[in-house]
Write a structure and sequence with these properties.
Strand order of the largest sheet: 15-14-13-12-17-18
CATH topology of the largest domain: Four Helix Bundle (Hemerythrin (Met), subunit A)
Largest sheet: 6 strands, parallel
Keywords: Cell membrane, Electron transport, Ion transport, Membrane, Oxidoreductase, Transmembrane, Transmembrane helix, Transport
Helix content: 40-55%
Enzyme class: oxidoreductase
InterPro entries: FAD-bd_8, FAD-bd_FR_type, Fe3_Rdtase_TM_dom, Fe_red_NAD-bd_6, Ferric/Cupric_Reductase, FNR_nucleotide-bd, Riboflavin_synthase-like_b-brl
CATH class of the largest domain: Mainly Alpha
Distance between the termini: 38 Å
Pfam families: FAD_binding_8, Ferric_reduct, NAD_binding_6
Structural class: alpha/beta
Number of domains: 3
Radius of gyration: 30 Å
Subcellular location: Cell membrane
Length: 555
C-alpha cells in the first residue's frame, strides 16, 4: 500500500473553481507536488522559450541572407546593363509586404489619428459578434468543434479583452486628434455638446468597467455580484455603441443588430427549454436533503422525460434561494420510471414517453452565496430535508464518452465524483451487454473524510449490484484526513480504502502494466489533482496509448 499512497495529513484543503459548478470537484486535500515534476515542467518551459527565440533568430537570419543575396545578384547583373528592365518591375507580393508592413507611413497627426480611430472602431464592433457567441450556453460551435463551454468561456474572456483594447484605442485616437487642435477644452466641449461623442465615451467606459470587474480576483470573490454587473454593463455598452453608430450613420450598426439578435435568440431558447422541461404534468418537484460534510442532495422529479448522457450538467434555478440566479451542477444520477398515477393505455411512442418520468439527482457542496444558503436551509429543516420549487435547464455537456477505451481510469476529488459516477454506471452496463470497448474500469476517489461516502452511497450500492461488475470495475478510495485507522477498511478486493493521498503516477503505471487497448484517463477535481493527473499522462505518452480528459468548469 505504501507504494501508491502518499502520507496522510500532510497538506491543506484546496477548493475548486465554481460555485457548485458542473464539473469542478469540491475541496480535497491538495496533493503534494513532486519536486522532480516541478523541475521537469520548469525545464520544459525554458525549452519552449529557447525554441521560440531560436526560431525567431533563424527566421531573421534567413531573411537577412535573402536580402543581401538579392542585392548582390542585382548588383552583379546590372554592371553592364543600362536599362535594367527586369529589376524595374515590382513583385506584387513583396510590394504589398513592404507597403503594409515594412515601410512606416507618416502623415499629419490628424490624418493618422483618423485612420487609427476608424480601424480600431470597426474592429471593436466586428469582434463583438464572436464575443457574444462564445458567451452563449447554447453555442452551436461547442458540438461542431467538440469544445467545452469551459474552453469557450476562456476564449470569451480573451476576446472581451481584445474588444476593450480596440475600444480604448478608438477613443484615444479621437482624443489625441482633438487635443492637438482644440486642447482639452475641446474634448470637454465635444463630450458635453455632441451626442455622438457622449455615447461613444459611455460605451468605452462601460467596456473598461467590464474588464475591471471581470478580473479573476473580483470575479471569484464576488461571483454573484459580478454576474449581475457584467450583464448590466454589457447591455449598457450595446446601447451606447448602437447610439454612437446610429448618429454616425455608418454601416457597422448592422453588426450591433446581429449581436442583439444572438443574445435574444440564445436567451429565448433557454427560456423555452426551461418551460418545456419544467412545466406540464404538475410541474417539476424537488427534494433537498442535508448530507454530512457540508453538502446536500437535490433530487428533481422532472415534468417531462429527460434523455441523459454521462458527463452532462444542468443549470438549476431555485427562486426561494436565489430569485434570478442559476448555477451549473453535474447530474450525479438519473433514473426513469413509469408514473404510478397514470392508468392510461399508451397507444403510440409519444404517449409512452408521457407515461414515464425522469428523476435527476445532484450533490451540492456548500461554498458561498447560493450553495451556502441552500445547505444551511436543508440543515435547519425538520429531518434535514425540505421541498422547494426548482427549475432545471439543460442538459449541457456530455461530449467525452469513454466507450472506445479498453482501459478507463476515472479520478475524482471531493464532489467531483458526481461527474464520474454516471460514467462508471454507463461503462459497467456497457461491459455487461457488450456495447463498449472497456474491459478494465478503475475509479479513484479522493475525499477528506469517510462521511463523504454518504454523498453517493445509494447510487454506489446500485452500481455494485450490477451484472458483471466484479469482472470490470475496481474502486480505490483515498481518505486524506482520517480521524483514526479504524475508519479505513476495505469491503472487498474490488473496493479498497487507503489513508492519505494517492501517488497518481504509480496508480497509472500499475494499470499500464496490464493495459487493454487504448487507455482513457479522466479527472474531475481540484486544480492540483488535475495538474498531477495531466502531468502523469503527459510523461507516459511514449510508453502507451493514453488520452487525457479534464472535466472542469471555470467562471
Amino acid at each position: 500500500m505504501a507504494t501508491f499512497v502518499k502520507a496522510a495529513g500532510t497538506g491543506t484543503g484546496a477548493t475548486t473553481g465554481g460555485n457548485g459548478t458542473a464539473a469542478a470537484g469540491a475541496s480535497t486535500a491538495a496533493p503534494v507536488k513532486d519536486p522532480s515534476n516541478a523541475a521537469i515542467l520548469n525545464q520544459d518551459f525554458y525549452n519552449y522559450i529557447f525554441i521560440i527565440l531560436a526560431s525567431l533568430v533563424v527566421a531573421l537570419t534567413i531573411w537577412r541572407v535573402l536580402i543581401e543575396v538579392t542585392k548582390y545578384v542585382r548588383t552583379t547583373s546590372c554592371l553592364n546593363n543600362e536599362r535594367q528592365a527586369y529589376f524595374a518591375i515590382p513583385s506584387s507580393k513583396f510590394a504589398s509586404l513592404k507597403k503594409h508592413f515594412f515601410i512606416n507611413w507618416s502623415g499629419p497627426l490628424a490624418t493618422v489619428c483618423k485612420e487609427v480611430r476608424n480601424r480600431t472602431g470597426i474592429l471593436s464592433v466586428v469582434n463583438m459578434v464572436p464575443l457574444f457567441i462564445m458567451a452563449a450556453r447554447n453555442n452551436p460551435l461547442m458540438k461542431w468543434l467538440n469544445l467545452s463551454f469551459d474552453t469557450f468561456n476562456l476564449l470569451h474572456r480573451w476576446q472581451g479583452r481584445i474588444v476593450v483594447i480596440e475600444a480604448v484605442a478608438h477613443t484615444a485616437a479621437w482624443m489625441v486628434a482633438t487635443v492637438s487642435t482644440k486642447g482639452w477644452a475641446g474634448v470637454q466641449a465635444s463630450i458635453n455638446t455632441s451626442p455622438l461623442i457622449m455615447w461613444g465615451l459611455v460605451g468605452t467606459v462601460a467596456f473598461v468597467f467590464i474588464s475591471i470587474q471581470a478580473s479573476s480576483i473580483l470575479r471569484h470573490a464576488f461571483y454573484e455580484t459580478f454576474k449581475y454587473l457584467h450583464i448590466a454593463s454589457a447591455i449598457l455598452a450595446i446601447i451606447a455603441v448602437w447610439y454612437h453608430l446610429k448618429i454616425a450613420g455608418v454601416p457597422q450598426i448592422m453588426l450591433v443588430y446581429g449581436v442583439v439578435a444572438i443574445w435574444v435568440a440564445e436567451r429565448t431558447l433557454r427560456i423555452v427549454t426551461l418551460i418545456y422541461r419544467n412545466v406540464g404534468s404538475g410541474g417539476s418537484k424537488t427534494l433537498v436533503e442535508a448530507l454530512p460534510g457540508n453538502a446536500c442532495r437535490v433530487t428533481i422529479d422532472m415534468a417531462r422525460p429527460w434523455t441523459f448522457k454521462p458527463g452532462q450538467h444542468a443549470y438549476l434555478y431555485m427562486p426561494s434561494i436565489g430569485l434570478f440566479q442559476s448555477h451549473p451542477f453535474s447530474v450525479a444520477w438519473s433514473e426513469e420510471a413509469e408514473k404510478l398515477d397514470n392508468e392510461k393505455l399508451a397507444m403510440n411512442r409519444l404517449e409512452v414517453l408521457e407515461m414515464r418520468k425522469t428523476t435527476m439527482s445532484f450533490i451540492i457542496r456548500a461554498r458561498t452565496g447560493f450553495t451556502a444558503k441552500l445547505c444551511k436551509k436543508a440543515e435547519a429543516s425538520p429531518d434535514g430535508k425540505f421541498y422547494t420549487k426548482c427549475f432545471a435547464e439543460g442538459p449541457y455537456g456530455g461530449m467525452h464518452m469513454m466507450h472506445s477505451y479498453g482501459t478507463v481510469m476515472l479520478f475524482a476529488g471531493g464532489v467531483g465524483i458526481t461527474h464520474q459516477v454516471p460514467h462508471v454506471r454507463d461503462l459497467v452496463a456497457g461491459y455487461a451487454n457488450g456495447t463498449v470497448a472497456a474491459r478494465k474500469i478503475v475509479l479513484v476517489w479522493i475525499i477528506q473524510s469517510p462521511e463523504h461516502l454518504e454523498w453517493i452511497r445509494p447510487w454506489m450500492t446500485s452500481i455494485l449490484a450490477m451484472d458483471q461488475r466484479r469482472e470490470s470495475l475496481r474502486i480505490m478510495l483515498f481518505i486524506s484526513r482520517p480521524r483514526s485507522t479504524k475508519e479505513i477498511h476495505s469491503p472487498s478486493a474490488t473496493v479498497q480504502m487507503f489513508p492519505g493521498r494517492p501517488n497518481i503516477e504509480t496508480l497509472i503505471d500499475m494499470e499500464m502494466e496490464n493495459q487493454i487497448g487504448a487507455m482513457g484517463v479522466t479527472v474531475c477535481g481540484s486544480g492540483a489533482l488535475s495538474d498531477d493527473v495531466r502531468s502523469a499522462v503527459r510523461k507516459r505518452q511514449h510508453a502507451g496509448n493514453l488520452d487525457f480528459i479534464e472535466e472542469a468548469f471555470s467562471w
